[in-house]
């Protein structure tokens, strides 16, 4: 279990730019210290063996065979779209569009956490992940939508690990589909006078894809890149207003 405590506000209350420059700034600012349970989940790791194989990983870190199951309250970004060089606003890059795939409207409350289940299968240099999570009741709000038949978000990811001259790297491909009480951009444009009166919202879906690459060049030097796309037809619900993204960089 993890406890999160925070205080203060992001610049301009964390509005005005989609690739916000501070990944530690939340949209729910506080003038006094507040605290929540950020993670409380169960994880089970099941080693997979074949024949006389002990299941223990070799000296090559790309080789492992296991099944990992998780359920509870945590971040979908803990499991999907990770990157060794651009994933943590406290120790690496700070911009939202660098620490994550900005086109993935990943399921989360306003603090970045949700409830869900996920599974990961690791077979030597390959991994496959799948998970389904709750979404917010309102756009980027703290309360979750418990209409589980209509409000949910799933993600799948395939990862291929490789090593060149003993320098590890990985390529990950992500797909997601989100169902939430989102507004339709086309409906809003077709009837702009009634946006406030009618709400212009129903349970709709948003889907997208992402590519995530990392590669060590030498010790303490690595490169990374991400590409992302979503259909852009519905209101951004959880993360930030980005339909297309491309990022790349080097970490020293």
Break the fold down into its secondary structure elements and pairings.
Blueprint: E1 2-8, E2 30-47, E3 65-74, H1 96-99, E4 114-123, E5 126-133, E6 152-164, E7 167-180, H2 185-190, H3 195-198, E8 204-218, E9 221-230, E10 244-251
Antiparallel strand pairs: 1-2, 2-3, 3-4, 4-5, 5-6, 6-7, 7-8, 8-9, 9-10
Q: If you had to describe this structure to a student in words, what would you say it looks like?
A:
The chain has 252 residues and is mainly beta. It has one domain (43-251). Helices cover 6% and strands 45% of the residues. It has 3 helices and 10 strands, in the order E-E-E-H-E-E-E-E-H-H-E-E-E. It has a 10-stranded antiparallel beta sheet with strand order 1-2-3-4-5-6-7-8-9-10, with no helix packed on it. The longest helix has 6 residues, at 185-190. The radius of gyration is 19 Å and the shape is globular. The model is unreliable at 54-61 (pLDDT under 50).
List the defining traits of the structure above.
252 residues; globular; mainly beta; 3 helices
- Separation of the first and last Cα atoms: 32 Å
Radius of gyration: 19 Å
Morphology call: globular
Low-pLDDT segments:
54-61
Give the structure's gist in a few sentences.
The chain is mostly beta strands and 252 residues long. 6% of the residues lie in helices and 45% in strands.
